[in-house]
Amino acid sequence: MKLAALFSGGKDSTYAIHLAKKHGHSVDVLLTIFPHNDESHLLHYPNIRFTSLQSESMKIPQLTEQLTSTETKNESEALDRLILSAKENYSIDGIVHGGILSQYQKDNFSSSCKKNNLEIISPLWNTEPESYMKELLSENFQYIVSTVSSDGLNDYWLGRTIQENDLIELKKLQEKYDFNLNFEGGEAETFVTNCPLFEKPLIIQDSTTEWDGYRGRFEILEAKLKDNA
Fold it and tell me: What gap in Å lies between CA 35 and CA 180, rounded to an integer?
């Protein structure tokens, strides 16, 4: 099928594209909504403006919407507009998204697809957390932690690229503090800097870190795609 991808720049939405393509689908356009702020329950917020670089590296065009409020109706209407535009301009048959456990997200996306007579593809739905996190590493996905908001996760993790040793440590912390290892509960947000879909990796040139003792954010201030020359 010809698909559009709901895309935030994080590990889940990016890996969902990877799996969709492995399953024989084509992903013809990215759909990205820029939330009004980080209070959205439907949308991913941190560093989302740099999804344009990821789009460029994947050679997949991107359609975007900028929200002016956090009202659920406003978010749903923006999603509907993006999906309609993708259907009209790219003749898509369905939507792929990277949801794992959030029934709220899935119901919203499914409703928008149903209104537009589109299939919804959820390749990560109910994926076992530890095996999924290991699979990301084995498939050469490189991603940083852009926010943390959970007992057991401190400022050490902000901006960190997750590797095998980090996953071992996260597993220990998860067993002690009982958070979702895949961060599906909002314990952390991520941002992909390189993966098999990218022609060029993303290089972070400048950033800032905020930490209040419980919550923290790693904000990219400047980034570019690596020059292969």
Answer: 24
